Amino acid sequence: MKHTLRMTHQREIILAELRKSTSHPTADELYERIRKKLPRISLATVYRNLEILFEAGVISKVEISGRQKRFDYDLEEHDHIYCVKCHRVDNINLPKTQKIVVRQKEQKGYRISGCRIEFYGICPDCRKKQKKELEGDNKMGCSSCELSDKQKEVLEALAKSNDPCGSKDIASVTSLEPKQISCQITALKKKGYVASPVRCKYEITEEGKKALD
Amino acid sequence: MKHTLRMTHQREIILAELRKSTSHPTADELYERIRKKLPRISLATVYRNLEILFEAGVISKVEISGRQKRFDYDLEEHDHIYCVKCHRVDNINLPKTQKIVVRQKEQKGYRISGCRIEFYGICPDCRKKQKKELEGDNKMGCSSCELSDKQKEVLEALAKSNDPCGSKDIASVTSLEPKQISCQITALKKKGYVASPVRCKYEITEEGKKALD
DNA sequence: ATGTACATAGTAATTATTATCAAGTCAAGA
DNA sequence: TCTTGACTTGATAATAATTACTATGTACAT
């Protein structure tokens, strides 16, 4: 059933911000930009309108890796390149001579309506970061990782100790059982906050100390 | 930090079911198959293990359209075809002679590690369904759509009436204001449960009658 | 036999998105 | 000009998809 699509002020701003963007933003990224101009706009309004504008043929949806929906002002179908580290998406222009042809017997009974080509790799910014990391700018782990109460307790116990500790040592200064300590230590190792210089002995890392602040 | 990966019974079943599948299932689809053999397995276990097995290099992750993660037993990179109607994913084998080459100047500073080609269209099953629909097997709307209480109220009022009704007519036999009726009607039209033979007059559809059962 | 490490089930929490509804706003008709 | 109808919004609830947490299970190492 047809209905008229009104070009509201909010929709004009959404389109303007999408037009400016070259990185095929997610709804959330676009929302952060739009609210600088429309402080009262709702995230639900952005989500709803991206879908409405796409269905009306005004913008296009970018089908690319990652869980979040991405949109593009450019209606002409083109190819993309995706950064596996920071999830950024850029356009890539291939010569029109490179066309993929699928023969009838390869089509598996599908009626094919299109083809997307997606390159993936590491973007210039993340390549720079990687180079710094290799040069000893040592930033392991993720300092912004949330810690559960039990993880904090274990990490604090390790922070107070000057020597590597075992599970029993930690249990004796916390309210946790040694078996519980073991589980928390596994999670903290994964986050890069705890290291094990010797088997069954643990110590806090620099990242772990930062995470406690 | 490295650790040993144990091949538990659950993991063996997960791998066996993934191996049998040719449609690159989502975690949820795989879970439905696995629980026939392991009734007590947890969905969280399936999710966690798919990620672990992928990170261990035992299976591959299929990056394709749609919000859900998909996995494949086949480790060799290959191309896919995706049904835009039912979201099914199949393999497609292109001759190895068709290679996409990206010149240095086109790479935008990225270090490219790979390329995915995804075809999209309508699969054989959905093509059959479409043919039936065109032949008058009329199945519009979605009978399984949930209805809110207010939507039900409006639909029931329309079901009782033999003639097309306006908002005021519906308001007089329900607890809703005409303005509220208007909003509910918009939603019901979208679902295919209400039609408007004349402007400002509404009637229930066959789908709408079915949805009330 | 005991301690350690990896794994699971059940459930809570998080992320990303969509539905609902009262109220706002604009267009059409009387 | 007023009333009615239709589309839209902001706020919030709900849903879908996924991940984190924890007590407990199980296997391995000492």
Name a few traits of the molecule.
DNA-binding, alpha+beta, homodimer, two-stranded antiparallel sheet, Arc Repressor Mutant, subunit A, 3-stranded mixed beta sheet, about 210 residues
Summarize the model shown:
Two copies of one chain form a homodimer. Chain A is of the alpha+beta class. Helix content of chain A is 39%, strand content 17%.
SSE inventory with pairings:
The structure is a homodimer of 213-residue chains.
Chain A: H1 9-20, H2 27-34, H3 43-55, E1 60-62, E2 70-72, E3 79-83, E4 89-92, E5 111-122, H4 124-134, H5 149-160, H6 167-172, H7 178-191, E6 194-198, E7 201-204, H8 206-212
Parallel strand pairs in A: 3-5
Antiparallel strand pairs in A: 1-2, 3-4, 6-7
Helix pairs in contact in A: 1-2, 2-3, 5-7
Chain A binds a DNA duplex (30 and 30 nucleotides) through residues 3-6, 8, 10-11, 26-28, 40-45, 47-49, 51, 67-69, 146, 148, 150-151, 166-168, 178-180, 182-187, 199-200.
